[in-house]
Amino acid sequence: MSLYRPLTLIAAIALLGGCATIPQPLQGNYTNVSSAAAQQGGAGGTQVRWGGEIIKTEPGPQQTCFYILARPLDSQARPELSRAGGDQGRFVACHSGFYDPEVFTRGRELTVTGTIHGTVTQKVGDYDYPYPRVEADVVYLWPKRPVYVETPYPPGFYDPFWGPWGPWGYGYGYPYWRGPRVIVVRPAPPPPKK
């Protein structure tokens, strides 16, 4: 009997560690309809949770509308990173009040919840694109994702113990035990004087 207690504890810790939590404002049950499917019509009045990357933010006198390139949502309801085949069309989400376009800038990740209310046609180049319109209850701007790069070493750097890869080479935990790399871009040197 005492053997099962540690196994139960390990299983519970693994289960809790694997759970991703959805931010409280985005929690709830929503219809699984994509923005591309809603373009065809017939989804009016449907409660949805959609997200993606902001294309543009247009504040108006009563509300602000966000034009969004739709992406699938991960287990936290955050838009997944861009990938081939991940494009799900576009949609527009409008919410009452003013949202600053300098904060809600192009490329930022946004998740909204709300109700579909028809479509709005806007030009994308010369094409008339029908954006499904969401009357948003919640507008959730995600923090910017951190950018990780590897640590550079000066030219000719060599440490016989650590070297540029640590004492164990590329196994045993690489790349997780290395610090972030900072890349410095310097201007080209001036041409030699003649």
TrEMBL record:
Pfam families recorded: Slp
Keywords of the record: Lipoprotein, Signal
Q: Does the keyword DNA repair apply?
A: no
Signal sequence segment: 1-20
| Keyword Ion transport on entry | no
**What is the superkingdom listed in this entry's lineage?**
Bacteria
Q: Which InterPro entries match?
A: OMP_Slp (IPR004658)
- This one is known as Slp family lipoprotein
